[in-house]
Amino acid sequence: MDTSKPHRQVIVIGDVHGQYDAFVTLLRHAGLIDENLHWCGGRNRLIQMGDIFDRGPKPRQVDNLLDQIQREANARQGEVIRLVGNHELELLMSNFMISGFSKDEAKVVRDKMKTQVLNFEIRAAYAYKDFLFTHAGVTHKLMKIFKMQLDELTPNNVAVLTNMVFREAIKHEFFRHPIFNIGIHRSGPDKFGGIFWEDLDDLLASCPRSELKQIVGHTQVDEIVLDNGRNIIPVDVGMHRKLQYLRLVQGVPEVVTV
């Protein structure tokens, strides 16, 4: 009789943008929450790619659910990894103009998120197996900057460095590092943007093939495609119109359509 534990699954879900009901549907389909919305995913792991706020009808409910299942997963040897998207970043930088929140509500959300960043409950980057996860991706230019600072360019090393830079920026409210760049196509001053703002076309234009395998959100695509020849897998399919997520078992990705 085989008594070995089943292989841990990693579920990757793209931008939510307030689509609470669709998000719940995906979490339940993936076996991560039960009918009462509590974590039932055991040792499995959820990676949510950021941009949970704005546009959709229930952004605070999405945030509250993620807070809850992150606590529950930690207590059950599971894990919920929450990445910061550009919409969360704008709140963290006290730029409330694109937020659908009132000013008072936005300040409450900002202060809570700042604490979560400093407690490492929300982060800018994550590495798993051979994959690097950021909201919008690491351009070739940014990769070259990282290579000058690291002994070896690996997903884990890049994630560690990025999170260190990010936490210090939040702590000191100083956002000058290139990870925060906004590209010219977003009316910014740089040819290419940083990990929160870079659109997919510009990300792909910046590198014929990414040096590291990347999984990104931010730019909406028609469907998740595993092999586009660029070492980059975009997972934001627009939750308001399509229900798809990525599942990795032993580091091997597969697309799941609901």
Describe the structure.
The chain is of the alpha/beta class and 258 residues long. The chain is built from seven helices and ten strands. The chain has a six-stranded mixed sheet. It has a four-stranded mixed sheet with strand order 5-6-7-8, covered by helices on one side. The longest helix has 18 residues, at 155-172. The model has no long low-confidence stretch (mean pLDDT 93).
Summarize the helices and strands and which ones pair or pack:
Layout: E1 9-13, H1 20-29, E2 45-48, H2 59-75, E3 79-83, H3 86-92, H4 103-118, E4 122-123, E5 125-128, E6 131-134, H5 140-149, H6 155-172, H7 200-206, E7 213-216, E8 232-234, E9 244-249, E10 252-257
Parallel strand pairs: 1-2, 2-3, 3-4, 6-7, 7-8
Antiparallel strand pairs: 1-9, 5-6, 9-10
CA(first)-CA(last) distance? 33 Å
Biggest β-sheet: count, sense, barrel? 6 strands, mixed
- Hey, roughly how much beta strand do the residues contain? 15-25%
The Rg value, from CA coordinates, equals 17 Å
User: Which structural category do the helix and sheet elements fall into?
Assistant: alpha/beta
Label the overall shape.
globular
Number of helices: 7
Query: How many strands?
Result: 10
Q: What string gives the helices and strands in order? A: EHEHEHHEEEHHHEEEE
Return the average pLDDT rounded to an integer: 93
* Uncertain spans: none
Q: Specify the helix fraction band.
A: 25-40%
Biggest sheet, strands in spatial order? Answer: 4-3-2-1-9-10
